[in-house]
Protein: Protein ApaG
Amino acid sequence: MSEKNPVIMIDVETSYLDHESDPAKSRYLFAYTITIRNQGNSSARLLSRYWKITGGDGHEQEVEGDGVVGQHPYLGPAQSFTYTSAAMLDTPVGMMQGHYMMVDDDGKRFEVDIPAFTLAVPRTLH
Structure:
Protein backbone atom coordinates (compact mmCIF):
# COMPACT_ATOMS: atom_id res chain seq x y z
CA MET A 1 0.00 0.00 0.00
CA SER A 2 1.48 3.32 -1.01
CA GLU A 3 1.42 6.35 1.27
CA LYS A 4 -0.70 9.31 0.18
CA ASN A 5 1.59 12.17 1.06
CA PRO A 6 2.44 15.39 -0.69
CA VAL A 7 6.12 15.43 -1.64
CA ILE A 8 7.13 19.08 -1.77
CA MET A 9 10.33 20.18 -3.52
CA ILE A 10 11.79 23.69 -3.36
CA ASP A 11 13.89 25.40 -6.06
CA VAL A 12 15.48 28.82 -5.46
CA GLU A 13 17.04 31.39 -7.80
CA THR A 14 18.55 34.62 -6.51
CA SER A 15 19.63 37.91 -8.03
CA TYR A 16 21.24 41.10 -6.75
CA LEU A 17 19.20 44.26 -7.35
CA ASP A 18 22.01 46.70 -8.08
CA HIS A 19 19.71 49.61 -9.00
CA GLU A 20 17.86 49.38 -5.66
CA SER A 21 20.93 48.86 -3.48
CA ASP A 22 23.19 51.47 -1.88
CA PRO A 23 26.51 49.94 -0.78
CA ALA A 24 27.65 53.33 0.63
CA LYS A 25 24.80 52.99 3.16
CA SER A 26 25.29 49.20 3.65
CA ARG A 27 22.04 48.43 1.82
CA TYR A 28 22.13 45.39 -0.43
CA LEU A 29 18.82 44.26 -1.89
CA PHE A 30 18.39 40.74 -3.25
CA ALA A 31 15.46 39.14 -5.06
CA TYR A 32 14.73 35.46 -4.68
CA THR A 33 12.39 33.41 -6.81
CA ILE A 34 11.05 30.23 -5.30
CA THR A 35 9.27 27.41 -7.07
CA ILE A 36 7.33 25.05 -4.83
CA ARG A 37 6.56 21.72 -6.56
CA ASN A 38 4.25 18.98 -5.37
CA GLN A 39 5.77 15.73 -6.63
CA GLY A 40 3.59 13.52 -4.45
CA ASN A 41 0.23 11.90 -4.98
CA SER A 42 -1.94 14.11 -2.75
CA SER A 43 -2.61 17.83 -2.38
CA ALA A 44 -1.43 20.43 0.14
CA ARG A 45 -1.91 24.12 0.95
CA LEU A 46 0.84 26.47 2.12
CA LEU A 47 -0.18 28.15 5.38
CA SER A 48 2.83 30.15 6.55
CA ARG A 49 6.54 30.80 6.16
CA TYR A 50 9.55 31.18 8.43
CA TRP A 51 12.91 32.65 7.35
CA LYS A 52 16.23 33.05 9.09
CA ILE A 53 18.30 35.63 7.22
CA THR A 54 21.99 35.82 8.15
CA GLY A 55 24.26 38.64 7.01
CA GLY A 56 27.95 38.22 6.28
CA ASP A 57 28.70 39.71 9.70
CA GLY A 58 26.71 36.94 11.43
CA HIS A 59 23.76 39.22 12.25
CA GLU A 60 20.53 37.20 12.09
CA GLN A 61 16.96 38.27 11.57
CA GLU A 62 13.90 36.06 11.66
CA VAL A 63 10.80 36.62 9.57
CA GLU A 64 7.52 34.77 10.03
CA GLY A 65 4.31 35.36 8.20
CA ASP A 66 1.05 34.17 6.81
CA GLY A 67 1.31 32.58 3.35
CA VAL A 68 3.70 33.86 0.69
CA VAL A 69 3.24 37.15 -1.24
CA GLY A 70 -0.27 37.41 0.17
CA GLN A 71 -1.31 33.98 -1.08
CA HIS A 72 -1.86 30.47 0.29
CA PRO A 73 -1.17 28.33 -2.79
CA TYR A 74 -2.96 24.98 -3.04
CA LEU A 75 -0.89 22.42 -4.91
CA GLY A 76 -2.37 19.27 -6.34
CA PRO A 77 -0.15 16.43 -7.53
CA ALA A 78 2.33 17.59 -10.21
CA GLN A 79 1.42 21.26 -9.66
CA SER A 80 3.84 24.06 -8.83
CA PHE A 81 3.72 27.65 -7.60
CA THR A 82 6.40 30.26 -8.27
CA TYR A 83 6.79 33.62 -6.54
CA THR A 84 9.42 36.32 -6.17
CA SER A 85 10.20 38.30 -3.05
CA ALA A 86 13.17 40.28 -1.74
CA ALA A 87 15.49 40.58 1.25
CA MET A 88 17.63 43.51 2.38
CA LEU A 89 21.07 42.83 3.86
CA ASP A 90 23.59 45.22 5.36
CA THR A 91 26.48 43.14 3.98
CA PRO A 92 27.26 42.14 0.36
CA VAL A 93 26.98 38.42 1.20
CA GLY A 94 24.51 36.52 3.32
CA MET A 95 22.23 33.53 3.38
CA MET A 96 18.63 32.54 3.94
CA GLN A 97 17.01 29.35 5.13
CA GLY A 98 13.69 28.43 6.62
CA HIS A 99 10.55 26.39 6.20
CA TYR A 100 6.95 26.47 5.04
CA MET A 101 4.11 25.14 7.17
CA MET A 102 1.67 23.23 4.99
CA VAL A 103 -1.50 21.21 5.51
CA ASP A 104 -2.71 18.22 3.53
CA ASP A 105 -6.33 17.45 2.60
CA ASP A 106 -6.73 15.38 5.80
CA GLY A 107 -5.83 18.43 7.92
CA LYS A 108 -2.38 17.10 8.84
CA ARG A 109 0.17 19.89 9.15
CA PHE A 110 3.77 19.38 8.09
CA GLU A 111 6.91 21.47 7.60
CA VAL A 112 8.82 21.71 4.35
CA ASP A 113 12.44 22.73 4.87
CA ILE A 114 13.90 25.41 2.63
CA PRO A 115 17.61 24.58 2.39
CA ALA A 116 20.08 27.42 2.97
CA PHE A 117 20.88 29.51 -0.10
CA THR A 118 23.40 32.29 -0.60
CA LEU A 119 22.71 35.94 -1.38
CA ALA A 120 25.82 37.56 -2.83
CA VAL A 121 26.74 40.63 -4.83
CA PRO A 122 28.30 39.38 -8.08
CA ARG A 123 32.01 40.03 -8.39
CA THR A 124 32.93 42.40 -11.19
CA LEU A 125 36.16 42.12 -13.12
CA HIS A 126 37.98 45.33 -13.98
